[in-house]
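yo, Dipeptide/oligopeptide/nickel ABC transporter permease/ATP-binding protein is done. seq:
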Amino acid sequence: MNISNALPLARWFGHRHSRTSPLQLLLRNRLAAAGLIVLIAVCILALITPWLPLHHPNQTALGNRLLPPGSDGHLLGTDHLGRDILARILWGTRVSLSVGISATLVAATVGSILGILAGYFGRHVDNILMRGIDMVMAFPYILLALAIVAVLGPGLLNALYAIAIVNIPFFARNVRGVTVTLRNREFVDAALLSGKGHARILLTEILPNVLPVIVITMSTTVGWMILETAGLSFLGLGAQPPQADLGSMLGEGRRLISTAPHVATIPGLMIFLLVMSINLLGDGVRDALDPRLKAGALRRPAARTRTAPAARQQPTGEPKGLLEVDNLRTEFHLDGQVHQAVNGPTFHIEPGECLGIIGESGSGKSVTAMSLLGLVASPPGIIQNGQVNYQRQNLLGVSDPVLRGYRGGELAYIFQDPLSTLHPLFTVGDQLVEALRAHRPLSYRAAWQEAVRRLEEVRMPNAARRAKSYPHQLSGGMRQRVSIAMALANDPQLIIADEPTTALDVTVQAQILKLLNRLREQKQASLMFITHDFGVVKQICHRVAVMYAGEIVEIGPVEEILARPAHPYTRRLIGCVPSVDYEGGRLAEIPGLPPQVSNLPVGCKFADRCDQVTDQCRAAPIELDTLNERHQARCIFAREVSA
Ligand code: ADP
Ligand code: MG
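structure:
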C-alpha cells in the first residue's frame, strides 16, 4: 500500500504522529469547530429523544390548538392539532437526520463502487458506467427526484431512494477521477507484478487512497441531502401524516404563518441550524483532509526563509572568494522542538572553483545549500545567524527583489530529481523560455532559439525537436540535462548542484559530471557540488568540505584529503567507496547513526561512532584545527591522524 497516501487517513483516525493531525487542523478552524459542537449537541438530543419526558409527538388535543411557545406544559407551543411542537421537532430531527445520512451512505457506496470500477478498469466498463451516470446528470436534479418519487409513490423510504439516486453521479465522478490517476501509479503496477488479483488491488491499494475523497464528498453533501429530504416532505412527497419530519412540519406550518408564525419558524430554524452546522463542519473536513490543501496550502510557506536580525547584517570587510559563507545557522522549529540542522559551517568558493560538500544523508547539506538563497521552507525553517556574502552584500539581508534577481540568474540551482522540478504540463523548451525571460527582455521567438542553443550546449541529441518534448517523454539523463540547461540559461556565476546525479545510473552520471565540469570551465563559473559519494568528489571537485550533523568536520583540497584524511569520519567515508579492483572481503561501513539534530551532544558530534574517542572529546565543543593554510579538521587528534 502506498504509505504516503494512506497516511492522512491513519492520522485522521488518531494514530500518533508528530505533525499536526487533521483533527487538530479541523479544530483550529473556528467555524468548523462551532459546527461540530452544534452538530454533536443536535445528534445527542436526537439520540436520547425516546427517553426524554416528552408528550407523544402525534397525540392531538384540539382544546390546546396553537398555543404560543412558553405555554404551560408545552415549551415550544402546539400546532394546529394541538400536538406538542418540542416533541415533534425532536422526533422530526431524528427522522430528517437519519434519512439524510442514510441517503448519503447509499449514494456514497453505490457512487464510489461505480467510480472505482469505471476508473480502474477503464475502456468499455468506463464507457458504459459513465454514460449511464451522464444520463442521470442530464436531468435537472430536483425534477428527477420528484419524478422518481412520483413513480415510486410518496413516502419517506421512496424519498430516500430518490435523493440517493440523484446524488450518485457526484460520488461516481469524483471517485472515478481520483482512481484514474491512481491506476497508473507505480505502486499499483508493483501490486500487479506481485501477483495480486484485481479485487485485492481494488480493496488494499485503491480504496484506502480514495477514501479521503469519499469522506470529503460525503461531508460536503450530507447537509444538502437533508435539505432535499425536507424539500420533498415539504411538498408532501416524503414523510406522510401523522409522522413528523422537519420538512413536513414546515409544510404544515406554512398556511398558519400569519396567525401562528412559530409553527413554521421553529422547524425552519432547526433545518437552518442543522444544515449550517453540517456544511461548516464539512468545509472544515475538506480543508483538513484534502491532499492539495493539506500539502501546506493552508499554511503556505513564505517565499523566502525567515531570517533573524543577527543574520541580516551587512559584511564589514572584503568577502573572501566569489561567495563566502560565515557561521551559517539554520534551525527548524517543530512542535516546540528546535532541530539544529545547520550548525555554523564557514567556507568560501573561489571563482571557477568546484567545491564539493559531502556527508551522509541528513547531515544538513541540502539545508545549507538552500539557506544560501533563502529557499528553506518557513515555517518551520529559520536562519538564526550567519552571513552569505556575495558581491559585498549579505544575501540573507538583501531585499526580496534583489534576491529574486539573483535566483536563477547569477546564482543557479540544480535539484536532485528533475522529474519533480520540471513542470509536467509544459514542453521543456517552454520551461527554458520561461527561465530565460524571467531575467532578460527577450521575445518569445528569440528566447526559443536561445533555449534550443542551450539544449545543444548540454549535448541534448536533436535539440530542436527535443525542445518540443514534455518531461515524461525524456529519459532521466536527458531531464537532468534540461535542468542543467535551465540553470545555465542566464550564465550564472555560481551553480549549486544538490546531488544532481544521485537519481541516475553510473554511465549517465559520468556523462553529466563531464558535462558540468566542461561547462564550468567554459563559462568560468563556480560550482558547489553536493554529494554523498567520494568517488564523485574525486572526479570533479578541487576542494571538499565534509559535513556531519550540520557542521563542517573537515575541509581542504581533494587530493590532500584523499591521501591524508585528518578526521576519523572522513576516513570512514572514504573507506565506504568501493573500487573496481576491489576483491572480496567486507566493504567498510560506519556503525551507528548520526545524532538527532533536536538533541545534539556538547562535544564532538561524531564521538558515539568514533573508535578513537576519549573523555576529552565529549567535554567541550571541538574547534576546527588548521593543519595547513588550506586544510582544516574538527578533531583533537587531527595532526596525529593525518600524519
Ligand atoms: P542532506 O544532507 O541529506 O541533504 P538535509 O539538509 O536535507 O540533509 O537535512 C538536514 C536535517 O534537517 C535533517 O535532520 C532533516 O530531518 C532536517 N530537515 C530538513 N528539511 C526539513 C524540514 N522542512 N522540516 C524539518 N526538518 C527538516
Ligand atoms: Mg539532500
